[in-house]
Design goal:
- The chain folds into 3 domains: 22-135, Fumarate Reductase Iron-sulfur Protein, Chain B, domain 2; 150-243 and 419-491, FAD/NAD(P)-binding domain, CATH 3.50.50; 247-416, FAD/NAD(P)-binding domain.
- The chain is built from 19 helices and 16 strands.
- The protein has helices at 22-25, 38-45, 55-58, 66-74, 78-88, 92-98, 110-113, 121-135, 158-169, 186-189, 198-210, 227-233, 262-273, 279-282, 300-311, 332-341, 421-424, 457-460, 465-491; strands at residues 150-154, 173-177, 214-216, 236-239, 245-246, 259-261, 292-296, 316-320, 344-346, 349-356, 374-387, 393-397, 403-406, 409-412, 416-417, 452-454.
- A hairpin with a 5-residue loop joins β11 (374-387) and β12.
- 35% of the residues lie in helices and 15% in strands.
- The radius of gyration is 24 Å and the shape is globular.
- The protein starts with 21 loop residues before the first helix and ends with a helix.
- It is an alpha/beta fold.
- The strands form 4 sheets. It has a 5-stranded parallel beta sheet with strand order 3-2-1-4-16, with helices on both faces. Strands 6-14-7-8-9 form a 5-stranded parallel beta sheet.
Length: 492
Amino acid sequence: MAKQPMLKFVDVQRDMPTKREAEERNKDFHEIYAEYAKAKAEEQASRCSQCGVPYCQSHCPLHNNIPDWLRLTATGRLEEAYAISQATNTFPEICGRICPQDRLCEGNCVIEQSGHGTVTIGAVEKYITDTAWEEGWVKPVTPAVERKESVGIIGAGPGGLAAADMLRRAGVQVTVYDRYDRGGGLLTYGIPGFKLEKDVVMRRIEQLEQSGVSFVMNCNVGDDISFEELRGKHDAVLIATGVYKTRELTQPGAEAGGIVRAIDYLTASNKVSFGDTVAEYDSGELNAEGKKVVVIGGGDTAMDCVRTAIRQGAESVKCLYRRDRANMPGSQREVANAEEEGVDFVWLSNPSGFTGDPKVSDINDPKTTAAGRVRTVQIQKMRLGAPDASGRQSPEVIEGADYDEDTDLVIKALGFEPEDLPTLWGQPDLAVTRWGTIRADFGTGKTSLDGVYAVGDIVRGASLVVWAIRDGRDCAAAMLEDFNAKASVAAE
């Protein structure tokens, strides 16, 4: 009888890929986890219990066939494992790196619930697809039949790219328009290289180009081309812009120089990693080197900022969050990595104001405001009170517990809001929600405008990459159904 290749979680312990030491990794922007070796990947995949009802799969937004590709990996059938993984996920090597597995698939692993360490699903997923690229199994899309329909996609982030991939596989003509000079959206310019090295994103962009997807870069819809022009050029338009408008600070002194947006800070850092010249980085405006840095926020963007500041050579990095560690929205794994690298988390704290210390030399500096360059953050200590509408405990100020924190650079990582697209694009009939996100059907992405669809964060609000991929794939399927229905009517 053949030896059982699975259910080895009792004898084999959970073992993540080797993580580089903090003193080494906090000086560069390379990924911090090593790759599994073949034997180690097979060993860790063999720990899967092959559940009849796989909670890992049901808690994955893409409903990836996780038990299937774990079994195939454990038995050495890696090319088949890649085919199964790619069938439901447009970018498995990206999700394997940046998905919060602790909150999704791994967080719902049955063997974790039974007292054994969870299966290292994300690390195996990354290994499968990285191996597929190395072995040449990932190829450009070659549609069986070319279709006449054309789709214009606004935004080259994960939602737009996932839709582009699915539409090209069906033979649809696809053009992607993006405001940046490179595709990928936040995958390229928002997420630092130590979590997602940029060649991983660029090779997917190249694969899509080789598959026949056209990219129009440095194109700002509403300025360089009107929304109506796009509707006239294409049979359907997909809005996948994401949300980029930063939530602002309202405390006194928040207009001081040296208080910057997280998106600007991270974009500058990523552009420098590409070898680009960035004036604001060279001037020190968006560079933490030698500075006392305070990051405000507790999400994954805040984690990206604090870990970037460490790598840029900041004198000190503090992260202020108004709730405690257990209630922060960011990944606990990211918090642990940041602490190892030298970040100081100041829990239950919130800024109440900022003071500037203008110098004579700052008077003619266009980035210096009336408040001068920021020098101090006034910090309020908080405690958790009654739960708010979402069920989370609301932070309350502890009177008389304020103190000052010296700083040279403050980074706002308070989250993102949607831009006012109906006004920017002159489309008053494009319906939005009370939060400003586009009102669209979550199953199909259909908006209030005929032939116009929307997916990802511009519909959901700031969310996860994996949800944007799911939305893009679902919307592409809905578009194809609509195209087929119209073709059927025309043929009658």
